[in-house]
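sorry for the late reply, my laptop died twice this morning and i had to redo everyting from scratch. anyway the thing you sent over, i finally got around to it. pasting the sequence first so we're on the same page, its 300 residues, then the predicted structure underneath. double check i copied it right bc i was rushing
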Amino acid sequence: MYQVLKNSTSQFVPIRNLQYHVRTWGTRKPNERPLVMVHGWMDVSASFQFVVDALRDDRYIVAPDWRGYGKTVVPSTDNYWIPDYLADLDFLLDWLNSPQVDLLGHSLGGNVVMLYSGIKPERIHRLINLEGFGMPRTKPENAAKRYVQWMDELKKMNKGELDLKAYDSADGVARRLMKTNKRLPEDKAQWLARQWAGENADGKWDILGDAAHKVVNANLYQVDEALGLYKQITAPTLAVEAADNEMDKWWGGKYSLAEYHERLKSVPNCRIETVADAGHMMHHDQPEVLARMIEEFLKN
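ok and here's the structure:
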C-alpha cells in the first residue's frame, strides 16, 4: 500500500451548522499564506495526499471535505447547491484568519474557486483551477424541463433509488477506483479506498459521499453570470488541464475544450498548462508533475 510521506492532521470546524472535517498538512508559520485545496464531486480531501507528498516546499496546506463528503457531517438536505459551497468556503477562510490565501480546486472544486475568486477577489493571492471547466451553455426555454428533472430525481432519491453502491471490502473499492482510472496504480488505489469509503456495522464498505449529490441542480447553468465573475478575478490564475481530454465524452459535443478556452479569456490574468499522460484525476496520475507546476506558479 502507498506509504504517506507527509502526515495530515484532522480537525472539525463549525461551519454553518455543520462540523466540517478539515485536513491540514505542515505547521503554520507567522504571516504565511495558507494553500487551500478543495476537492471535486464524489471525492475527499485526502485525494490531494499524493500531490502534497510531492511538494518540495514546506507549505501549510488546508483541505476540507465538502458538505456531505468524507468525514464532514451530512446535512439534513436532499440536494446540494453551488452557493452552499461558496458560502462554506467563505466561512473556512474566515476561520483561517488570513488576509489572503492561495486557492486550488479540482473539478467541482475548480468551478467553485473560479466563482468565489470573482465574488471576493481581495481574499485570493494566487488561483489554480484543475479541470474546473464549468458546464454547457443553457437556454431559458429549458428551465421547465430542468425543474421537472430535479423534482423527479428528488423523488427517486427519497425512495432510495439513487443510493450509492456498497462494496464487500476495501479491496473492492480499490478495484472500482482502478477501473474508473486506468492509470491509478494498485498501491495508491488501496490507500485511497480507505479514505474514499468506510466500513459499516455489517462489514460492507460505503462510499463517503451523500447520494443526494447525484440529484441535478434545479437551476440552469448561467454562462454569462460565470463570465461576469471571471472578469472580476484579480489573482493571477493557472488553469491546468489533462492531455487526455474527456470533455467530448462527458458532454457529447454540447461543450468543448475550445469553448472553455474561450471562456478563460474573460479572466484578466490567466495562463493554461497541460499535464501529459494524465486524465481528469491528474493529481493521482501525475502528482510530481503537478506539484512542480504548483510550486513554480506560487513561488512569487
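The chain has eleven helices and eleven strands.
thats about all i looked at so far, will dig more tmrw
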